[in-house]
Amino acid sequence: MTAIDLTSASVVERAQRISEDVAGPNAEAVDRHARFPVESVEALRVGGLLASLIPVDLGGGGAGIREVADVVAILGRGCASTAMVYAMHQIQVACLVRHGRTPVLAAYLREVAADGLLLASATTEVGIGGDVRSSSCAVERSPGRFHLTKEAPVISYGAFADGILATARRTPASPASDQVLVVCRRAHTRLEQRSDWDTLGFRGTCSNGFTLTSDDDDAYVMPDSYADISSQTMLPTSHILWASVWLGLATAAVDKARGFVQAAARKSPGSTPPAALHLAELVAVHQQLADLVQSAARRYDEAWGIDDREVVEAMGFVIAMNALKVSASQLVVDIVSRAMQICGMAGYSNGSPLSLGRLLRDAYGAALMVNNDRINANNAQLLLIHREH
Amino acid sequence: MTDDVIRAVLAEHGRLAVDVAALDPDADLYQVGLTSHASVNVMLALEDSFDFEFPEQMLRKRTFESIAAIRAVVDGLTRAEVD
Q1: Domain end: A196, A220, A244, which one?
Q2: Testing the interface with A: which of B39, B40, B64 to mutate, by most A Cβ within 10 A?
Q3: What is the pLDDT of residues B13-40, one digit of tens each?
């Protein structure tokens, strides 16, 4: 890390250095061994990028969601697992920044910024079937304290996280949909691993299953309902930052296709290689994805800046963010497939510099993590009553 | 009258964890189990019962947070139609 000056450059420049010098060179090993990208996350910590989204007065970088989305896409170009870890961390930070308006939670954010803490998420639950808007576990309170036990089928990088934001029913008597978000600090939380993470893609996120048990001061139960946190912050931030991961990995695929076509062009100046036409088509699709992601980030950034909950709660905004996720997750597969067509056997081979295997496997995860069927079903329901476009 | 219709719609479509008839008008419906999915069905049934359409800006969580909140919106919309 000493070779990289991570303090003087801009956030985007630092992200580029980390992506090219640390995340990219380690991406194959992270993928092959399904190991956590420790060196990339450490570089992000040292570079202050874990604290980008935290306001300056709490010791953070004061960046907006657009800048963070750019960082995610840059990291995704080097290593999609690193980018996904960074994105998921920022989603948790966003929830704390926008909904942690108590002195205790503000002090915690200050600690997250000062110590470069990494935050993870436990929203799914065994027996709930992927519906993050309902919980079976519940927060149990005694005076000034809370206790939570949750069976989480996945907690991405749970074993490496300094804090985990977990959903649970507000009280043991609450219905499944009346949820709160609980900040489970590592020193007050026990994780027992229940399952492994051996998937086709995003192998470095190490999303093992755990039984989570946490006992702490009840000031770490966030005051807003999870329904509000989800609709106003977690859902739009997730869709924008995940789509930024996919944009980054799509860009990596375009890089390889471009490299292939340009190498062919150099061998026969004067005649356009046959694959050049496919590259032109590929770049057009990539531009669709880039513009889609960037316009969504801008739209949310404008609402975020003025803290406009009216905008982000409006049905049209929710439908647009859901549509972003579905479109982006399909475009990324299309882009990597097109790159494969261009690179041919060089793209299909493992170990070739133009190998697209990891990118293709990563790309297929996009439609599955929060399944597109579930998101389309939500939009189908909202469109029964939504009026304007 | 309006209250009765609202309660009937909630009883049929709200999927609440409690007896709607006994519910306080100011009770938080989300805390007794109203989901966003169920709230869409409640909206559709209210539109059918009162023969109006909720304008887009009223299609928010807050509009449906209690019987009293729904009542206020329904009164506003039915009055607007009479005017």
Answers
A1: A220
A2: B40
A3: 999 989 999 999 999 999 999 998 899 9
